[in-house]
Each structure stands twice: as C-alpha cells, then as structure tokens.
Amino acid sequence: MTEPSPFWKTKPLEAMSEAEWESLCDGCGKCCMVLLEDEDTGELYETSVSCRLFDPEARRCSAYADRLRLVPGCVQVTPKNAGTLSWMPRSCAYRRLAEGRDLADWHPLVSGRPESVEEAGEAVSKDLRSEARVKASKLWRYVTRERD
C-alpha cells in the first residue's frame, strides 16, 4: 500500500491548517537574527545578534504570541508574503515551498528528527548576542557573513 503524500506536497500554503503552517518552521532561528543592509548595494549581512525576544537555547521566540506587538519590526510570515520576503534565508521552508521547491532533507518533517537542523549546520549558534545588549551603532562589528 502506498503512503499518502505529506501535506506540504499536496496542499498550497493558503490551504494549510494553522498547525500544518506552524510545523513548517524548522527551528533554525535564522529569521530572528539581526540583518544589516548595505544602503548602497542592497546586500544583506547576517550578524551574531538576535532579536531581543529570541531564546538561543530553544531557537524559538520567547514571546511568539505577542512578538508583533512587542517588536514593531517583526514580520509575520504568511502564505501571501512567504515568497516575497527576500531577507528570509533560502533554506527557510516557507520560502522554499512558496518558490515551488521541496523541503530540505534535514527538515524535521522529512528527517523525523528536530536535531537534524543543527546536524546539517542550518541552525544558528546558541552563542548569539541579544540586540538588547548591543548598541545599534555597533551592529556592523557583529557581521558574520553575507546572506545568500
């Protein structure tokens, strides 16, 4: 007997339940990193600084339900904008599916193991600094690499 295809292969993003949508988050933490943009070139740079609400141990937002109220710059990823947020990492499941790509083999929904994200080198460091502890004028000192 053939196993049914997983929901992310059969449903468009707009048709997913809230639980399905939320399960697409692989827990890498990349969307919670502070990014800097070169005003001249538009290039994005990752830093070793995270949003003040980010819990680096859990690699999750510590106030997920209230994040949009507590952090004015926080962007809620939705089925409508998932494919348009160019600052989202190319590895992000929301972006991948919106672009017509499949989930990566290290994604917990594929591997069946949440630790596969870290094992694949896709999870952010647990040693990130909180933006609450870094002056905005000093952020360029924390650039780690250009965002792909």
Automatic annotation (TrEMBL):
It comes from the Bacteria. Pfam families: CxxCxxCC. Transmembrane segments: none annotated. Belongs to the UPF0260 family. This is UPF0260 protein GGQ59_001046. It comes from Parvularcula dongshanensis.
